[in-house]
Amino acid sequence: MMLNGALFLLVCGAAHAAASGGDGPLLNGDFEYLPNRHQLNGMRVIEPQAIPHWRATGHVEYVEAGAKQGDMVLTVPEGKHAVRLGTESSIQQQLRVTRGKYYAVTFSAARTCAQDEKLNVSIVPGDQPGELPIQTVYTSSGWDSYSWAFQATRGLVWFVLHHGDDGVDDPACGPIVDNFAIRMLNPPQATHDNMLVNGDFEEGPYITPGSPWGVLMPPLIQDHVSPLPGWRIMASSKVVKYIDSEHFSVPHGSRAVELVAGLEVALLQEVHTVPGSSCRLEFSVGDAADGCAASPMRVQVATAGASRTVDYNSNGTGGCNREALDFTAQANSTMVVFYSMGYHMTSDGSGTLCGPVIDDVSLVCVPQHHARRLLR
């Protein structure tokens, strides 16, 4: 996305109060503070500052629950109001953050027109924008919650959400977005007891209290910040789901990852190792108690030194097994990879995608000369 003149002036001007970069909703992140009606033409926003605490450019619509496009009722993810981004449009909000710290932004999105709708997310000033593919709907609600992360390069930045050209004729066509929140990430450190960073998945994006859907974490290119510290999601357009113990069965602690996209996505982390070291990878595999019944659900776990297929017989009501993989480190770094070998839906017929849950992952390696000493 190009930085246009209007956005440049917004970044340089910074003449109004900015949202704090703490944990919780952005200012008017649910769009329930209404614009003045004279700033709207029907649903279309006609003044950049019409939506309180936001700036809008291009074809942006302020949507009320029950509004229609032709015969189709437009989905409002939460509450009574949301925003629809037409072709070549954007919304942005200024954030007050701490330079050098990592943050994750969470929001909900629902596709309305084109099959290949995508959203570009960026921080100005900051890195190149990231792309969130929203073609696949993972829940029966018609919308999903997504997360995107960044490292702050300034104390005052603009969060920008941009929707491009879908190749459709109607300029109003585009995704509906709602329920924006932010969380500062505090990545834990690896230890002798666990060489993996954030192996228990307790550090991750903001999950809105009361939201029963979890948060999707999209694929990442190498240079982007992960909303799940320590881990990367490798795929072309699919995601993994971040879940909490308030709404799901979690093997350990209060957070875990559900592999909802089968063979099309992998969860991985690269760890520094000493060649020849004896290593043990331990992890929990279970189900989220979301009706994901399958016998078995299969998880493939792999490193450069070994791989294993783990079968978990799920009745969709929760539970887990503790598993392990022993291997010898082959190089100065070792990639730990998890992926689901099947595609699953919840048993209620809603079409909600689901899969095996991974949690409480630990890796311990003992150098070869230490291992020999322990055997004596």
TrEMBL record:
SUPFAM superfamilies from the UniProt entry: Galactose-binding domain-like
Endpoints of the signal sequence: 1-17
Keywords (A to Z) from UniProt: Cell wall, Glycoprotein, Secreted, Signal
The keyword Signal is annotated on this UniProt entry: yes
Residue ranges of the TM segments: none
Coiled coil: none
Gene3D superfamilies: Galactose-binding domain-like
Main location class: secreted
Localization per Swiss-Prot or TrEMBL: Secreted, Cell wall
Domain DUF642 residue range list: 25-183, 195-363
Source taxon at top rank: Eukaryota
Name recorded for this polypeptide: DUF642 domain-containing protein
Organism name: Lolium multiflorum
